[in-house]
Amino acid sequence: MKITLVTAGKIKEKYLTAGIAEFTKRLTPFAKVNIIEINEEKMPENPSAADKEKTLRNEGERLLRQVPKGSYLFVLDVYGQAYSSEELAARINALGIGGDSHLTFLIGGAFGLSAEVRQAADERISFSRLTFTHQMVRLLLVEQIYRAFKINRGEKYHW
User: Considering the entire predicted model, what is its pTM?
Assistant: First the structure.
């Protein structure tokens, strides 16, 4: 299986970089993982609603250009479907069995997602109604993908 993460923004905090690297390494027996980062769009000072929409649309277009053709696109969205770890594992397993061997997970930038990104998703998923930094979500995501593979193999990582 191939897993692609398409994300806006760079990880600056060393503890997050270390955690992401650790779970990405742990995933190597199960999937080929590729992380694609784009630079975040700059938001003007005191932006109008039109400025916000334009910034999100520009960033969204750049994110969507990085999504591999033919991959199944999960967009992380606070308004998306909430899954338990077991449900996400079952969903990943079902997609693989159904022939979707390349999964892409898209994480927007600090300002959220454009309507175009939400519409392009095959599925929108939410980790919580709480707000997390998009850098933290990347760490949570790679850990949950790793956990999903361990659950699907019946291994001890998940009790």
Answer: 0.94
